[in-house]
Design a protein that fits this description.
The chain is of the alpha+beta class. It folds into three domains: 3-68, no CATH class; 74-209; 216-245 and 289-408, no CATH class. It is built from 14 helices and 13 strands. It has helices at residues 13-18, 21-30, 40-48, 53-68, 85-88, 91-100, 187-209, 219-244, 246-259, 271-286, 288-291, 327-340, 365-369, 394-408, and strands spanning 3-6, 9-12, 74-79, 108-109, 121-128, 134-150, 156-170, 175-180, 300-308, 314-315, 345-351, 370-378, 381-387. It has an eleven-stranded antiparallel beta sheet with strand order 4-5-6-7-8-3-13-12-11-9-10, with helices on both faces. β9 (300-308) and β10 (314-315) form a beta hairpin. The protein is elongated.
């Protein structure tokens, strides 16, 4: 694998293509090293050539965190059954299974080796607990990838690069995650290509470690719970206003119902509740900026849902862009959604408790504070995509993934 050579240091091509230069700059700055005045990689070589063990170890960790996160912002999450622990739960069994596939079985890190080839394991870390039990397995593979890039003329062209597939397995919590770098911003194109990659590594893990995967359809309930918790929190101030006048709404509806000789104004449609919800929706749409704004008590906001029931009723938005005319469709679908308690797709904007401000001017505090994601459930995985960010730092990915796990495991409900 070719790379960039500066003095005696040669960074692999894949490292250069998968880590933004501003991230190297931020690392040097954080470590108290010169980062300007000379070409960036010359500054990096200068710092590495000092042979400071602490700096070199921190640089190795920086590379691990960037490759395991960063541009690898599409995450496929799979749960597995307790039977899988027959191998995954034992350090020696994991090593034997890797050796049987003629793969490295001792912990190693060759991410900075410029001579690695595509489809090669370049990182392995098996974390042991008590009695040789396994707490976590992390591994990385190189992959030759064709991505779409935009030229200076504004045209789109394909470019072959080296990317990395990162896998984390958590035996104690019975799940794993496989991270990919998206090929393109075009969801349809990206979905097909990434699905083939996922299928390959899903099967590899199954064959290597005897993993017995569980059906992920139950995670549709997790997506519904995320929707319910976040929406109820965001709607709370508006719901309270309407609930405070619910008796007035009931009285007015009763009067109107009598005037048109409607004997039952609560069946087949509960008119007072429907009117209350219309008022609530109108209040939200008239105050949409505050509804969607950051609040220390909110963990996020739902941007969109994609849901269709057996009758074909469908809603694809929860924003104020379409206006109040979507309210009836939304309410009809939401009632069905609240009965089924399942969602296939969900777009969530998560709020970070401590906003991360980058030196890069294009990434403002507001953009970093709110992290946009798309969640979709398939039979064999949940796919989480980080949207509108070219690189997603470890602390951001870890925080959002931890929230998803809390919903998945019932800690938040």
């Amino acid at each position: 694998m070719e790379g960039i050579v500066s003095g005696q240091i040669q960074l692999p091509k894949g490292i250069i293509e998968n880590i933004f230069q501003y991230r190297f700059k931020e690392f040097l700055k954080r470590m108290g090293k010169p980062f300007s005045g000379k070409p960036l990689f010359e500054r990096l070589y200068q710092a590495l050539s000092e042979n400071d063990p602490y700096f070199n170890n921190e640089f190795q960790q920086f590379i691990i965190e960037e490759i395991s996160n960063g541009r690898n912002r599409e995450i496929h999450i799979c749960n597995f059954s307790i039977e899988s622990l027959r191998i995954l739960g034992s350090y020696h069994a994991v090593q034997s299974s890797l050796a049987a596939k003629k793969l490295p079985f001792e912990n190693f890190n060759s991410l900075l080796d410029p001579n690695t080839e595509p489809d090669q394991m370049v990182y392995l870390n098996i974390q042991k607990g008590e009695s040789n039990k396994v707490n976590q397995i992390s591994m990385a593979f190189t992959k030759e990838t064709v991505i779409e890039i935009e030229t200076e003329e504004g045209m789109t062209k394909e470019k072959s690069i080296i990317s990395y597939v990162w896998i984390d397995i958590f035996p104690n919590r019975n799940y794993l995650q496989i991270k990919f770098r998206p090929y393109t911003n075009n969801y349809i194109v990206n979905f097909e290509k990434t699905r083939r990659d996922f299928d390959h590594y899903w099967k590899f893990l199954k064959d290597t470690f005897g993993i017995v995967y569980t059906n992920m359809s139950e995670s549709k309930s997790t997506l519904y719970n995320i929707f319910k918790v976040l929406t109820e929190k965001a709607e709370a101030p508006y719901s309270k206003k309407v609930n405070d006048i619910m008796s007035e709404i009931e009285t007015k509806v009763k009067e109107i119902a009598q005037s048109v000789r409607l004997s039952d104004y609560k069946w087949p449609v509960d008119i007072p509740v429907r009117v209350a919800r219309l008022f609530e929706r109108a209040l939200i749409l008239s105050d949409i900026t505050n509804y969607k704004a950051y609040d220390s008590e909110k963990i996020g906001i739902v941007d969109r849902i994609d849901f269709s029931d057996q009758s074909g009723a469908k809603v694809n938005a929860l924003s104020g862009d379409e206006g109040i005319e979507v309210a009836d469709i939304f309410f009809d679908t939401r009632e069905t959604l609240d009965e089924l308690k399942q969602l296939n797709k969900l777009w969530v904007r998560w709020f970070l408790p401590n906003p991360i401000v980058s030196d890069q001017e294009s990434e403002s505090e507001e953009e970093i504070k709110q992290v946009e994601t798309r969640l979709e459930v398939f039979d064999n995985r949940v796919v989480m995509q980080f949207l509108n960010m070219h690189s997603v730092p470890k602390e951001v990915q870890d925080y959002v993934l931890s929230l998803f796990r809390k919903f998945e495991e019932g800690e938040i409900s």
